[in-house]
Design a protein that fits this description.
With 126 residues, this protein is an alpha+beta fold. The chain contains 4 helices and 4 strands, in the order H-H-H-E-E-H-E-E. The protein starts with 12 loop residues before the first helix and ends with a strand.
């Protein structure tokens, strides 16, 4: 059967049979952000994440000179514009969102080409 992609284009029988991760990015169906992951991570992965999270949090707190409770605010909560295209994800933040500790830690570096997403991810400041 044919499937309709997120942008309304029809996938051929061959593309429709490919695993979602192997299809061209612009033809992959979109999932709501609030949706649960399609499958639970392996228990070994969850155990590893639980082991490294406290250390990673401590490292971030040291780099950013912030308490753990402030990490979400410092790293993620900023007014911004997000532009999506078939090849790019561009996040444009105001200059006021620039944080010297975040910059010094290298956390605002452009990730560049991300094969898993099939797009180039860039940060811009204006």
């Amino acid at each position: 059967a044919l499937q309709v992609a997120a942008e309304g284009t029809r996938l051929g029988l061959h593309a429709a049979r490919l695993p979602r991760s192997r299809r061209p990015f612009h033809t992959r169906p979109l999932a709501p952000v609030a949706a649960a992951p399609p499958h639970a991570p392996a228990s070994g992965l969850m155990a590893w994440v639980q082991r490294v999270t406290p250390a990673f949090r401590a490292i971030l707190c040291g780099w950013l000179e912030q308490p753990a409770e402030a990490l979400v605010e410092v790293l993620l909560r900023h007014p911004a514009r997000l532009y999506l295209s078939s090849s790019h994800v561009d996040l444009v933040l105001p200059m006021e969102a620039v944080s010297l500790p975040v910059r010094l830690a290298g956390l605002d570096r452009d990730p560049g080409w991300q094969p898993a997403f099939g797009r180039v991810i860039l940060f811009h400041f204006d």
